[in-house]
Design goal:
alpha/beta; 2 domains; 13 helices; 53% helix; elongated; NAD(P)-bd_dom_sf; DNA binding
């Protein structure tokens, strides 16, 4: 399957590299031609976006957001060129934006998949990397061998075009929550004069624990009962309070500990103290 990579920022360039390495026939287009010229010896550099679309079966759009994508669609000759093509959208945005763009693209006679990227450019094409797609399953299955060039663990989430965007919000929540926790941890250890390695050296073991806790939470959620035998929320909350008290005492940021105490304090007020920490899910889903 021939494909065009539309947008050659850091992520678009990494995807183009993965597609070329995977042996695909690739065309590239970028609003600033200089970035496209870097691929001239390995891919077709299209003179216009309409030309890139006309010359390929599938177009992978890696622009900054849905608004930018729609603006580019409005350029002369682009919409007309899409009839019969497969349009794969990989920018970040909301489920509502994904559904709206899907409707617009399919009205133009193209097949639409919404996709989201759960990695950074450096790991595009890696065995453990995952992209998530939603939309027409038949279209996804036809494109899957090509799409898995970008991430071997990629998969289809369902027919609703907004599903991939919702999963992206989950990924971003996990990513940013993890990084905030990492930075808060470094602030604690630095306040005590400790080297950063005290945190970074522990991360691999911590990731094992997070994975185990996630699996345990999944089990409790599927069971429909948040009671277990590991650590009740009352116990966790005492540790959360230690975070806040220590942050306040050492004059480092207490924004993250305060948020944790506020959220799980609400869970205690609702009577979830005897449950596992998974009981806190209800505060997020039913505020």
């Amino acid at each position: 399957m021939s494909l065009a990579i539309i947008g050659l920022g850091n992520m678009g360039s990494a995807i183009a590299e993965a597609a070329i390495t995977g042996g695909h026939q690739v065309a590239v287009w970028n609003r600033t031609p200089e970035k496209a010229e870097a691929f001239a010896d390995r891919a077709t550099v299209a003179e216009s976006l309409a030309e890139a679309i006309a010359a390929t079966d599938m177009q992978v759009w890696v622009l900054s957001d849905y608004e930018t994508t729609e603006a580019v669609l409005a350029e002369t000759g682009v919409s007309a060129a899409l009839a019969g093509k497969t349009f794969v959208q990989l920018c970040s945005g909301t489920p509502a934006e994904a559904r709206a763009l899907s409707a617009k693209v399919t009205d133009l006679g193209a097949r639409y998949l919404d996709g989201k990227i759960f990695t950074y450019p450096a790991r595009v094409g890696a065995e453990m990397t995952r992209f998530a797609y939603s939309g027409d399953e038949v279209v996804y299955k036809a494109c899957a061998p090509t799409l898995k060039t970008f991430g071997a663990r990629s998969g289809w989430l369902g027919p609703d075009p907004g599903f991939a965007a919702a999963a992206d919000l989950a990924w971003l929540s996990y990513l940013y929550g993890s990084m905030v926790g990492l930075f808060q941890g470094l602030a604690f250890t630095r306040a005590e004069g400790m080297p950063d390695e005290a945190v970074f050296g522990s991360v691999p073991s911590w990731l094992v624990e997070i994975d185990a806790e996630a699996r345990y939470s999944k089990e409790l959620i599927e069971r429909g009962d948040f009671h277990g035998g590991q650590a009740e929320l009352d116990v966790h909350f005492a540790a959360m309070q230690h975070l806040l008290d220590t942050a306040q005492a050492t004059s480092i940021s207490n924004a993250f500990p305060r948020m944790i105490v506020d959220v799980f304090g609400e869970a205690l007020e609702r009577g979830y103290g005897g449950m596992e920490i998974t009981g806190g899910l209800e505060v997020f889903c039913k505020p």
